[in-house]
Amino acid sequence: MKILLLEDDKILCESLKEFLELEGYEVDVAHRGTEVFDLTFSNRYDLYILDINVPDTDGFDVLTELKEAGDDTPAIYITALTDINSISKGFKIGAEDYIKKPFDPEELVIRIKSKYEKPDEMITLGDLSYDPFNRVVQKGGQVIGLGEVQQNIFHTLIMERNKIVDSYTLMDLLEQPSANALRVNLVKLKNKLGIEIKNIRGQGYMIEDL
Q: Full-prediction pTM beyond 0.85?
């Protein structure tokens, strides 16, 4: 799970980052609200953990702008604000949870595990198997290394199998997005894994169950 943590208290931020990483999470940090937009422009996250009182753009406005842009990534607010109006505002904006400071980092981890770490079943496609939680691909029992870009493309397609994934969504996963670069990576994926990736003209790509 990849997490974006917004917290302007750098000591607390580093402590939470280290604690979460010890639990196996990948964590990027932002200390100012505007930094979140830079990070979300070039990265995809599974969870946002947002402080509210931060410089530039507060946590309420950050989540509001993300939601208005169509970002449905779940969010947890961590804040010293305790009034009911603030709590209500956070949930109305789209936060899924709210933790009042000070809190035990273990409480945060418990909430993450209980709410957002849903067990993923193994996905099979012919002689191909995929563990979506650990992102491990096996073909005929042998682990296949894909590299980060192709791994992200495959994960997106297989998790949306039998549905069309638009080209722009897939291009966002590339280091240097372009239609040609996407086609090259898709061809490499097909050759490595021996699977069919359908090109739905003018719409995008899809993997279908066999």
A: no
At residue 119 the predicted structure's pLDDT band, cuts being 50, 70 and 90, is low
Query: Residue 180 to residues 8, 85, 167, 171, 176: CA-CA distances in angstroms?
Result: 40, 50, 11, 10, 10
Sheet containing strand 136-139, strands side by side: 123-125, 128-131, 136-139, 142-144
Tokens of 36: 């979140």
- Give 158-201 pLDDT, tens digit per residue: 988 889 999 999 998 998 889 999 999 999 999 999 999 999 98
CB-count exposure of residue 24 (10 Å: 0-12, 13-18, 19+): exposed
Q: Could you tell me where in the chain the CATH 1.10.10.10 domains are found?
A: 123-206
H/E segment holding residue 95: none
| Cis amide linkage into residue 102, ω under 30° from 0 | yes
- 89 touches 60 (CB < 8 A): yes
138 vs 126: CA distance, rounded Å? 11
Domain spanning 2-115: CATH 3.40.50.2300: yes
Architecture of domain 123-206: Orthogonal Bundle (1.10)
Give dist(CA 189, CA 125) in Å, integer.
14
